[in-house]
Amino acid sequence: MMMPLAQPCTEIGKTTRLSFGGVEVELLADTALSLPDTHLACVPSGSTPTGTPRVVCSVNTDASLLGERRETRAITLSDDGDCLKTPGGRLRLSKTGARCWVASGRVAPSETALGALLEGLTAAVLELSGGLVMHAAGVELDGKAYLFVGPSGAGKTTAAGQVFGGRSFTVDRVALCISAHGAEAWALPGGTKPDEIAPPSAHARLPLGGVLRVVQASRVLALELASHQALLVLRESILTTNSSQGAEERRLDAIQHFLSPAPIVRLEFGLGAPLAHSLRSLESRATRPRETP
């Protein structure tokens, strides 16, 4: 049986504070732990925006969790929103104030478990704070993040590779939140980067320039979506941690906050067609009110 390749990791010490996935996290561990370099690459430089959700999390290592194989990136939050399960990790979450949480958990002493727990913790806190985690491929162009969304096989990664002059922002997942600066996108790890895609962005957090629902066609055309269409486009791309009715209502409420700050369009495109001009044309739509026919 082929053994998995070792993942490059960095020891982060017993106490570490970082911003990740739209959340400010302070990790308090019983011993020095390792975080995959892919996750550290998604920690933005500079100060954290005002109003960013914050969580203090104490973590103990638990060798009994080593047997759990990370075959998927499954994140499960209980219906009452306080118990989190990730591959190789368990955690309890409690709210202590406006946009503030504390958490305590156990994590397997492995190369991937702490990264998985960090993904799950920030996804849960972000969702409880009115943010979203989405399946998307994103590029940086002119200092903004443009996200390509759609079902598997729609051409998200292909479209991202056709933004000539852009830089790869995220390949598989992205966190969206509303800060004092408006709608922002935070890069998340995951996905396999194709060889032909653009060089990586130097930023892990960018203003949101637009969301594009990709459809492969023989032409290039960006069609603005009405509010109800835009809502469906965002909803189909959301990655959820909690399947309860209350959590779904929170998601739908959160989506409403992202319908106005950035344009959401249907992008028809052909293979090889340059798409940078289509993205730049969204700038004029950003302040235009969206109409419902």
What does this structure look like?
Helices cover 18% and strands 38% of the residues. It is an alpha+beta fold and 293 residues long. The protein folds into two domains: 10-129, no CATH class; 133-285, Alpha-Beta Complex (Phosphoenolpyruvate Carboxykinase, domain 3), CATH 3.90.228. Strands 8, 9, 10, 11, 12, 13, 14, 15 and 16 form a nine-stranded mixed beta sheet that branches. A seven-stranded mixed beta sheet has the order 1-2-3-7-6-5-4. It is globular, with a radius of gyration of 19 Å.
CATH topology of the largest domain: Phosphoenolpyruvate Carboxykinase, domain 3
User: Average pLDDT value?
Assistant: 89
Task: Quickly count the helices.
Answer: 6
Order of helices and strands: EEHEEEEEHEEEHEEEEEHHEH
Portion in beta strands = 35-45%
Evaluate the radius of gyration.
Answer: 19 Å
Number of strands: 16
User: How would you classify the helix and strand content by structural class?
Assistant: alpha+beta
| Highest CATH level, the class of the largest domain | Alpha Beta
Percent of residues in helices comes to 10-25%
| Annotated CATH architecture of the largest domain | Alpha-Beta Complex
Residue runs with pLDDT of under 50 for 5 or more positions: 1-5
What profile does the largest beta sheet have? Answer: 9 strands, mixed
- The coarse silhouette is globular
Kindly list the characteristics that best describe this protein.
293 residues; alpha+beta; 2 domains; 9-stranded mixed beta sheet; 7-stranded mixed beta sheet; 6 helices
